[in-house]
Amino acid sequence: LGVNNESLEEQLELEKQIADEKAKQLTEIKKIVSNNDNFIKRNYDLSITNNTVEKYKSQTLAGVYGVFNNCKLIYIGQSVKPKNRETLHFSRAGSRGGIIDEAPSKISKALGRGELQRDKLRFKMLEFIDDITTRLAREKCLIQRYKPIYNDLYV
């Protein structure tokens, strides 16, 4: 046949090297596509989550709310966006290396100092009131009646 075994072996070895290189490239391409797909999925999931949370927060009507610790009323407040206020109260702004006195509310300050435990707290709407004047009057009345420990008492 006139084919030299040595040149055939060299050609086979060269083809094997080319096949190995193509397999490596294919593996790299698969990794890139997989990472990109995961990136897109994570961002899509995050987008859905953020939209859902914002929608949920905006659906709660304005009103007067109470914060309960082990079923005991410890704070009364009012808000146009109660779910945003709940997030504000239940954040531990002062416990993540910040100064506790800079926490956004008395509840979050107490969380930061360890006086309260997040899993024992409950946020409950007491009354739904759109009008700000009426809402403030009801908040004041309820604070005077129940005297929650984390409210400044109205005189």
Which parts are unreliable, with pLDDT below 50 for 5 consecutive residues or more?
94-101
Q: What fraction, in percent, of the residue positions are helical?
A: 55-70%
Rg value:
31 Å
Strand content: 5-15%
Shape: rod-shaped
The number of helical segments is: 4
Distance separating the two termini: 112 Å
Sheet with the most strands, sense and barrel status:
3 strands, antiparallel
N-to-C series of helices and strands: HEEHHEH
According to DSSP, the number of beta strands is 3
Strand order of the largest sheet: 2-1-3
Kindly state the mean pLDDT as a whole number? Answer: 79
Structural class category:
alpha+beta
Task: Explain how this protein is built.
- It is a single chain.
- With 155 residues, this protein is an alpha+beta fold.
- A 3-stranded antiparallel sheet has the order 2-1-3, sandwiched between helices.
- The model is unreliable at 94-101 (pLDDT under 50).
- It has helices at 5-59, 82-90, 106-113, 132-146; strands at 63-69, 72-79, 121-128.
- The protein contains 4 helices and 3 strands; from the N terminus they run αββααβα.
